[in-house]
Amino acid sequence: MLTTRWYGAMLMKQFFNTTVRQTVRNSSTIFGLSSGFGKCGVAVIRVSGSASRAIIDKKTRLKSFPEPRRAVLTKIFHGQTNAMIDRGLLLWFPGPQSFTGEDTIEFHVHGGTAIVSAMYDSLATFPDTRIAEPGEFTKRAFYAGKMDLTEVEGLADLIHAETEAQRKQALRQANGQLSCFYNNLRSQLVQAIASIEAYIDFAEDQDVDDNVLSVAVQNIEGVIGQLKAHLNDNRRGERLRNGVRTAIVGAPNVGKSSLINLLSQRNVSIVTSIAGTTRDIVESHYDIGGYPVILGDTAGLRQGTEDVVESEGIARARTYVESADLLLLVVDASRVETVDRMDTYLREYMQTLGLDADMMSRMLIVLNKCDLLTDGTRERLSAHNNSFSFLSCQTQSGLPEFLERLKTRLVQLCGDPSVESPTISQERHRYHLKQCLACLERFRDYFHETGPSNRDLAIVTHHLRNAVRCIGKITGTVETEEILDVIFSTFCIGK
Fold first, then answer.
1. CATH number of the domain where residue 254 is located
2. Within a domain: residue 494?
C-alpha cells in the first residue's frame, strides 16, 4: 500500500543516514581545546571517541576508574614518554550520556601554551586519534540525535551572542523551543498524510469514514494559519541575531558625527565645522539596552553640491538609508527657534533632504544642540509634539531620555525574546518555511477547486510530503552535506 511504502522508505533512509554516517564519521577519536585560546588560568581539553577509556588508563595513574560525571584531581602524564605534563581535573562522561553520545573525557589543566601543546602531542600518539575539525563535537552530537539543526544553530548563536537580547533568543533556540514548534507542525502534517492515505487505501472497503478526509484537510488549514502567523514576524528574530541597521541622517553640520562619537564614547567619525566632512559610510556596533545596533554615520544630505567626492558620499548615504531598519533624523535645534509649526518644518526639511515621507515609520527624530534653545522654545516644542528626542552632543544633556526612547524602538523592531514565542532567526529557516507553505497551499487549492469525483489524492498528496521534507530540512531530518558543512563550520575547534 502507498502509506506502507512511503513510511518504509522514510525509515530505511533514516536508518541508512544514521548508521552509515556514524560508522564513517565516528570511527576515530577526536580531541580539541574547548576553552578559549591563549594563556588562561584553566584550559579544558575535550576528547570524544572509542579510545577514551584507553587514554584515561594511559595518561593517569588512578587506582580505580573514575566515576561518571565526577571531577577527579589527578596527575596527567604523556601517553608515550610517561613524563608528567600537569596536575589537573579529569571528568569522565560515558556514552551515550554525554554531549556527543560517545565516551567523552574532559581534562582541566593549567592554561599555559606549553601545557596545552604537550597535551595535544600526547593525545596524538594514541592510535586513530586526531585533532577535531571545527564544530565536529557538535556534529557528532547531531548525528547521535542529541540535538537537531535548529538547536545546533541556536548553540552557535549562543556562543557568538554579544548582547543580552541575543543571548536570550539563542538560549531559547538552543534549548529546543523553536524545534518543538517545527516538530509539532511536522507531526500534524504526517498525521494528515496518514489519514488521507488511509482514506485512499481503505475507503472502498468502508473501513474509513469520509469524515477522516475532511478532518485531515481542516488540520492542514490550521497548519497553514500557523505558518503564516510565524512568517509574519517582520523579521524580528533575524534583526536581533544580525543587529539593527541604523542610519544617522540629516543635513550637513547638524551633529551626526558627534552623535555616533557620543554613543561610542570614542572618535569614530571626524567632527569639524566644515560642511561635508563625512564622505563614506562609517559603521560601528553597539549594545543599546541589550539589543545589537549597527550605527552608520552618513554624509550630510543636500542638493546642488559640486564636489564630486561629496556627491558620491550622498549617493551612498541614500542607498544605505533605503536598506536601514531604523533612521535617526538629526535636526539642528538652532534652526527651529522661530518655527511655528514643527510638523510643517519637518515635512519641508525631509523634502529638502530628499527623504520620502513613508520613511517616518522607520524614523526617530533627534533635535540636537538643544542647549542652544531657550526654555520657552523648548517648552513650546515639547507641548506641540512629544515625538522628539531633545539632545545636546556637546553637553550630553538629554542622553538618558534619548537612549530610553531608542531602546523602546528597538524592542518594537526586535521583540522581547524572553516573553514572545520563538521567532525565525535564520534566512535558511524562512526560505524552507515559505516552500512548505507553498506546498500546502497547492494542496489546499487543488482540494477546494476539484470535485470529489475528479480528485486524484494519491498524486496530489505528494505536495504534503514535500511540505514535510521542507520542515525536515530545517530540523535536519532531511539534510544535505553542503548545508551541514556550512552550519558546523561556524563553531570553534573544541565545540
1. 3.40.50.300
2. no
Q: Is residue 160 part of a domain?
A: no
Q: Which helix (H) or strand (E) holds 27?
A: none
**Cα distances (angstroms) measured from residue 380 to each of 7, 331, 334, 340:** 72, 17, 14, 9
State which residues form the domain around 122.
29-134
Looking at every residue in the chain, the average pLDDT score rounds to 83
Residue 304: is it exposed, middle or buried by C-beta count within 10 angstroms (0-12/13-18/19+)? exposed
Mutual orientation of helices 481-488 and 149-160 as an angle, nearest 10°?
20
- In tens, the pLDDT along 168-178 reads 999 999 999 99
Residue pLDDT, tens place only, 20-31: 444 445 579 999
State whether 355 and 255 are in the same domain: yes
In the sheet where 29-33 sits, what is the strand order?
72-77, 84-93, 104-111, 40-48, 29-33, 129-131
Whether 1 shows a pLDDT value over 50: the answer reads no
Do you find a cis peptide bond into 68, omega within 30 degrees of 0? no
pLDDT, tens digit, 9 for 90 and up, residues 438-457: 999 998 888 877 766 677 77
pLDDT value for 493: 59
CA pair distance 490, 495, nearest whole angstrom: 10
CB 317 within 8 A of CB 249: yes
Count of structural domains within the chain: 3
Asked whether residue 330 is assigned to any structural domain, the reply reads: yes
